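Practice set, problem 2.
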Amino acid sequence: MQKVAASPISPSSQAAGKWTLRSSDEHLIDLLRGQAFSKIDTLARGLGVTATAVRQRLERLMEAGLVSRSRADDLLPEGHSRRPRGRPSHVYSLTEKGRRTQGDNFRDLALVLWQEIRSVQNPEIRRGLIARIGSAMANQYRTAVTGDTAQERFESVARLLRDRQILCDVSPAPQSAGGSSSNLAVLTSHSCPYPELSDLDRGICSAERLMLQELVGTAVQLSECRLDGGSCCRFTAAGAADSQEVIPVTLCQS
């Protein structure tokens, strides 16, 4: 019997948690985008595959929360006759999560918006906008950041960044030049979270510094920047009020 090759994973596929769309799944989603509440036989004809293949794909997409199934009779207008008793007929449509799997153009939008911020001539207004952006960025993480000390909160931030596919880790800082021991920590991200925006100007670095400052709850300084020729962007934060810790937060370009 001839083996059917597994559908390749498209480079543009998007992960739903740990679940990744296959190219064949994307074709089915595209079909559902234009033909909401479709039956399996309709989808099979549109894709040129068997009904069994469509069922398997639909099961995957429903498990990922991208497709929902409804009884066809439940969608009939009031007064329309329903099917005789027997096996129910189902139709399939995209969920809100499924509708968001394609058509994302956030990258271009972010670049355009940042260019508009750069075009603001009044430095006070521009600084205010960047401060508000930093605060808004912090709000995305604020409720999930835990810990009593700066180091604990940095470790919490590191976990959140890893959840967003930004590879990072927390490690002890090297000893000082005098050989004295300290309880410093370094958070290192091995990929720039905003590479294209940072290439435009260092305003995004300021926004990131303000974000970290709000999340850690202490002053943060940008002590090294890739835009100045450094190998990484290093943010140094003061420790807790009852300590003289200084905790470098390092976001390195991969």
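Problem 2, part (b): a different protein.
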Amino acid sequence: MNILLILSLLIGVPFGYTQYSINKIEKDHPPTGQFKTIDNIKMHFQILGDGPVVVLLHAQPSNLEQFNKLKGILKTNYTVISIDRPGMGYSESLKEQSPKRLMQQAKLIRGLVQEITNEKPILIGHSYGGALALSYATQFEDEIRGLIVINTASHAWKKGKPWLPFRIISNPIYGKLFTNTFAMIYGQATISSSANSNFPNNQAPFNYAKDTSAALTLRPKTLESYANDALNLREALKLQQNSYIRLTIPITIMAGDEDTVTPNKIHSYVLHNDISHSRLVKVSGVAHSIPELKPSLIKIEIEKLLKNNY
């Protein structure tokens, strides 16, 4: 009896705390945009400004709030569509759990964009969002005006052992138990420092996690989507990387000199070599965080791309 009581406390208390935390997180960080259902998946997005259409695809894990600084700069000259990728923020997740997830996300984003506008957009993707933008471009190149990828993932890297939390979350036996109990406690203890590796000197800006609604990632379904995306990314890039050479639209590749998250020698520099007409822009002092630290440079590159003034 005592063992059962101890087990129920060990599981029941963290489970109850997780449910309480989910409600509090969603109350503190409610949806800021609109919803549309595409192929039976409810997608959350935000539209700001007026002018040529720009679509923003955020990193991993994150949500459309990641681009708040960039949106503030762009909305005076552009129609800015920022999207919660499937499974992130307030967009529903895909059921697909194979490397085809990236391709299917691109198809969903394309369907959403077509519902919103008849204009050809400029796609802007950061990190995982860059990989997604590349997938979109390789499938639907004639439907977009240009592409800007920032600190992007683009090519398969040397295979290694996945991060332990991803292995736990994706486990079919105890994964859901973890995401619904101890993951919330662990995540809340580490969330403030979790983004540090993206920034120079391993130091995120003050209140970065709060300002970008990062806590939304700690919800069980979002964690599961995050792990599935991460575990399948390497093979997804393998499926698409040989198609980059065929792209002909204007493409700008922005790379932080000190980026250790998506190292340039594996991703951005190789992508630039694959796409001979692409423009490579090296940015210092930003590590993996050009959108957060130097968003005005992205606006300059949009203007150059529109003029095709490389």
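Answer key, part (b): Residues 53 and 79 are 5 Å apart (CA to CA). The domain at 30-307 is CATH 3.40.50.1820 (Rossmann fold).
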